[in-house]
């Protein structure tokens, strides 16, 4: 995120490179940066200062002709090339081909990248990955900017969310921010869409955790996390209601393994925090990507001793065996396990 922020600041300040290659799975962030580039180089996006081409259909000869044509009536022009195939690995006999040999026309493009036309800003939009070892990619690194837009994690996600809240004039309590990120699985497109709904729902007031839980659809991980939160608090009534909500989208048989994974995380977090390990080290051991999950798990784990967490895991394992052996139906086994674990937290 730091690199993306620095790139955005540079573009906004008018520090424009002649070449850009943007790629990655987080397309919302990519298009935010692209919008800044359009605003800086081609305000108004008229035909004299901006072209948008499809890399899958345009020939390199045509692309290079456009790139070498001086801009009309403006100091700079922007050419955006979508769906660029020239920077990714090509498949050869089912294997990745990392060389540049299979595309002779790429030599002409390579020559252009080594000496871009004055007045032309060329922005290539790749897929989720590019091959950074290819000569073409290295040429853009040397003369311009290659930027990956990967999903945000941890503090970077919070920082980005704060920027969006400021931009939209929305106030939100810290816990609600974390809940929103979790519910949206840190997907920036989903977060942006949900912010619009939350703003309409809350109006001028500060958005709370309850607002997020009422308005934003929960993914499976967030729903089970909320269920485990109530179980860890020993709140049987709330846990029962949360279980009903989870079963609207998940088959009962899948809930026990998810709860078991969650309580295993609680055990790891509690044991490692007692031994003085850092959040980053605990994240690695628990196989979790976000500090928020570790922090919230740490708070949940305070309700239990390590022995009680082991007992909770044994309870879930017993329930799982009963379901798989057909001794009892899934919902009865889950409800019984939840009651037993709620009693442990008291």
TrEMBL record:
Residues 20-148 form the DNA polymerase III delta N-terminal domain. It comes from the Bacteria. GO terms for biological process: DNA-templated DNA replication. This is DNA polymerase III subunit delta. It catalyses: DNA(n) + a 2'-deoxyribonucleoside 5'-triphosphate = DNA(n+1) + diphosphate. Keywords: DNA replication, DNA-directed DNA polymerase, Nucleotidyltransferase, Transferase. It is an enzyme of class 2 (transferase). Residues 223-341 form the DNA polymerase III delta subunit-like C-terminal domain. One of its GO terms (molecular function) is DNA-directed DNA polymerase activity. Belongs to the DNA polymerase HolA subunit family. It comes from Candidatus Avidehalobacter gallistercoris. One of its GO terms (cellular component) is DNA polymerase III complex. Its EC number is 2.7.7.7. InterPro entries: DNA_pol3_clamp-load_cplx_C (IPR008921), DNA_pol3_delta-like_C (IPR048466), DNA_pol3_delta_N (IPR010372), DNA_polIII_delta (IPR005790), P-loop_NTPase (IPR027417).
């Amino acid at each position: 995120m730091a690199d993306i922020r620095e790139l955005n600041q540079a573009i906004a300040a008018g520090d424009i490179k002649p070449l850009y290659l943007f790629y990655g799975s987080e397309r919302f962030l990519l298009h935010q940066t692209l919008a800044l580039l359009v605003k800086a180089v081609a305000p108004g996006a008229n035909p004299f200062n901006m072209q948008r081409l499809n890399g899958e259909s345009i020939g390199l000869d045509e692309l290079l002709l456009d790139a070498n044509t001086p801009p009309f009536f403006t100091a700079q022009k922007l050419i955006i090339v979508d769906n660029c195939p020239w920077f990714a690995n090509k498949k050869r006999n089912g294997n990745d081909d990392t060389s540049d040999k299979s595309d002779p026309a790429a030599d002409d493009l390579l020559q252009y990248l080594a000496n871009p036309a004055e007045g032309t800003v060329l922005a290539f939009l790749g897929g989720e990955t590019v091959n950074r070892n290819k000569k073409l990619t290295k040429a853009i690194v040397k003369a311009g900017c290659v930027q990956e837009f990967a999903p945000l994690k941890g503090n970077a996600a919070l920082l980005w969310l704060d920027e969006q809240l400021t931009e939209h004039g929305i106030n939100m309590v810290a816990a609600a921010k974390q809940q929103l990120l979790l519910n949206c699985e840190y997907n920036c497109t989903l977060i942006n869409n949900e912010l619009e709904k939350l703003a309409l729902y809350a109006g001028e007031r500060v958005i709370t955790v309850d607002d997020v839980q009422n308005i934003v659809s929960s993914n499976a991980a967030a729903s089970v996390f909320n269920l485990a939160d109530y179980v860890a608090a020993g709140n049987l009534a709330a846990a029962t209601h949360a279980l009903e909500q989870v079963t609207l989208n998940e088959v009962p048989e899948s809930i026990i393994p998810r709860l078991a994974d969650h309580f295993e995380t609680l055990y790891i977090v509690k044991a490692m925090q007692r031994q003085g390990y850092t959040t980053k080290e605990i994240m690695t051991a628990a196989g979790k990507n976000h500090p928020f999950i570790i922090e919230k798990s740490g708070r949940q784990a305070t309700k239990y001793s390590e022995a009680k967490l082991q007992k909770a895991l044994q309870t879930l394992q017993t329930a799982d065996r009963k379901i798989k052996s057909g001794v009892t139906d899934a919902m009865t086994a889950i409800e019984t396990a939840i009651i037993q674990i709620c009693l442990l937290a008291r």
